[in-house]
């Protein structure tokens, strides 16, 4: 199988960890793994003296945890709703009864930052939730601008970096971000199943709420003191996470991986240009390429790739709009092959 979806093609050494016997988790060995992973994660995202919580659960679980434990302690939230993932922040706020302003940004467009600033001056939220990269369109938001506005109005900033972590440069401390969330099946390029919360050191001793038993920050943090989780962890994926993080650190940190992702994205975007596919995102992230083909709602390209070539790309919300992830292992040769297959299938579309 050729995977251009999340998590993409895995490094064989990491995949192999998943085939090994599953260790018991209530041991010093597992505690050590957990603590080491935390330190490596904090280093990769530049969150000095912060904390992580690693949950068994998908990225949305971690997003929910943020609302239950943290956003619910605030007076008013503002959400950047630039697509289905931004909208999820809005839905979560509504679900938990957090007063929320839905700041809608049109599909694949960047934020009008001065308009946002004006709106914030009027609304005066005390927490802002956004995505770094809105994966539904491929649009990257400017965290430096968002952070500047948040600092001006003393707003706590929470960022879903699920699809930008390790694909885009990201310095949590420099941007003054209070909480980031990510999950394992995107930039980390290991199986889905774990999500990660990064808490900045400013939130040490913060009086979090207790609105969800499984996701409770305090329970999870106190167990983590001894490297443990309150409930059964997806042990194998914790081991794959640890192995992957060690790999990244051995390669000198996040920069090498980010550079690889950038090169793949640039290669594929050049091919999009050659084949005449537009990339609608105003400021596209390198994590994925979202591109417009002549395909219809029938998804001829998606089905053809799967049936003829055992190859998977991600359909988007609009007919003919597809997304190719650049976060799994892929060579430029793979991308050239993929593009020519898409082109061949597109020529059968009417
Ligand atoms: C993938 C993704 C999520 C979470 O999705 P899950 O399916 O719950 O892991 C959230 N936000 C963004 C931006 C994503 O790309």
Describe the structure.
The protein has 350 residues and is α/β, with parallel strands linked by helices. It has 2 domains: 17-250, Aspartate Aminotransferase, domain 2 (3-Layer(aba) Sandwich), CATH 3.40.640; 255-346, Aspartate Aminotransferase, domain 1 (Alpha-Beta Complex). The protein has helices spanning 12-17, 28-45, 59-69, 84-95, 113-123, 143-152, 172-175, 217-224, 235-250, 254-275, 300-309, 332-346; strands at residues 2-3, 51-56, 77-81, 100-104, 127-131, 133-134, 139-140, 156-160, 179-183, 194-199, 288-292, 311-312, 314-315, 321-325. The strands form 4 sheets. A 7-stranded mixed β-sheet has the order 2-10-9-8-5-3-4, sandwiched between helices. A 3-stranded antiparallel β-sheet has the order 11-14-13, covered by helices on one side. A two-stranded parallel ribbon has the order 1-12. Helix 3 runs parallel beside helix 4 (84-95). The two termini are 28 Å apart. Bound molecules: pyridoxal-5'-phosphate. Residues 58-60, 85, 131, 135, 160, 162-163, 183, 186 line the site of pyridoxal-5'-phosphate (PLP).
